Task: structure prediction
Amino acid sequence: MPELPEVEFVARQLRETLPGRRITAVETRWERSIQGMEPAEFAAEVSGRVVTQVGRRAKYLLLTLDDGRLLIIHRRMSGNLLLWAPDDPEPLYTRVVFTLDDGRRLAYTDPRKFGRVALAAPDALPAAFATLGPEPLEDAFTPAALATRLAGHAGAIKAVLLDQRVVAGLGNIYADEALFRAGIHPLRSAASLTAEEITRLHAGIQGALTTGIAHGGTTFGRHRDIYNEAGVNLEHVEVYRRTGQPCLRCGAPIERIVVAQRSTHFCPHCQPPHPASSNGGSQARRSKRAK
Ligand SMILES: [Zn+2]
Result:
């Protein structure tokens, strides 16, 4: 499932190729990929529009059109946007095709069909994104801002990081990576983290995300960039899906547990269940180890 880095990498690629291009036609191959509008109406509204900007909010890709409206693309489980050159065969699982004025096409592909493409007025965005937490790579996201977001969340920090209302764009891969970088056990209560731990977590979130973007995102499933290339960040992750392999810092075998129904990978030595300086008490929770 694409997380912030996978969406951001694709946004950056589209930003190099799409602004100034006119969408000359839209074909829908799977009606439910279009949200909130009949495919014929969607095609009529979008055809003829020029893409002026490419942006991202959380895991949503935002293409601004020259009438001010936005195409919002949420890839969900398996969606991709592929630049489809005139001589190439149609990509597999194409659901929506945007033909561009230079003859190329942008194919929205989605084998599992959970992703959605929608056309929205700019004044609809604040409501659509009202529940999303802060963007973790923006300047306003400081350790203090993270502390404010975590306050009052008694649940396991791993589960809290997956909550898009707390921080936008984190998913299973980068939450695990951020917690490892910060040396924080995934089952620690979010509300129990010290200011120093939150500062480390803040750095861990930003470090994990920027590393992911730099490597084109993490592909072990469907994520591809617009040129149909896999991201190579799986070669650079430190704990994710490394169960049983030695920790890159201390050599202890990486363990796997389930938190919020998601596989969670951590080092039992570098991410102790209780902080070294803890005064105990509230940290009595035992980690359930499910190998
Ligand atoms: Zn370790």
